[in-house]
Amino acid sequence: MRAVLFDLDGTLHDRNATIRRWLQGHARRFGLPAAYAARFLELDDFGYRPKAEVMPLLLQEFGLSPSVEELLADFSEHAFSHPALMPHAHDVLSELCGRGVLLGIVTNGWEVKQWQTLDGLELMGRVDDVVISKAVGLSKPDPAIYRLALDRLGVAAADTWFVGDSPRNDVSGPQAAGLRAAFLPTGHALAGERPDVKLADLRDVLGLE
Questions:
Q1: CA-to-CA distance for 20 and 97, rounded, in angstroms?
Q2: Per-residue pLDDT tens for 89-137?
Q3: Long-range contacts of range 31-36, CB-CB < 8 Å, 24 or more positions apart?
């Protein structure tokens, strides 16, 4: 193993914890009903559903007085201002770096928000490269984005693991590009995808070869 590529949200970033923390403040700011948070999480679908679709549904279901624009603005301003680190993330990255393993992050998303998350989690000094989909014009699970990340690190797919929580983006996609895939079950369940390894938590990455 010469390199490890990590997903960000749901892998190094504990997005579930971040969103739950934001929801507490969000509910206070707007006086939202107790059931709002659970319904938001259901509609949000681990971040895969656009908030421009989620907020109108919540507004309609709960008969809320804030406007859709106000709810969206609150998400944009506050949701990722204090991101939560996935347990063991810094220790695992430090150990891999000490072994001479090259480290990269490959994430779908908008540049500003992903850089905000990376900075908030203090990840930038701990990895060798970051590939953000909107910055490069490619998105997971397109094999081209994994090949780009490999080229930027100067490593071969056969010598690299991909670690992530999405069955499609972090298992099937990397495998199609020739990488081995280690699945971290913090988001969607596997639905026929066959990762090379299933992780209990990030510490298991240290046992990959």
A1: 31
A2: 999 999 999 999 999 999 999 999 999 999 999 999 999 999 999 999 9
A3: 32/62, 32/64, 33/62, 35/62, 36/62
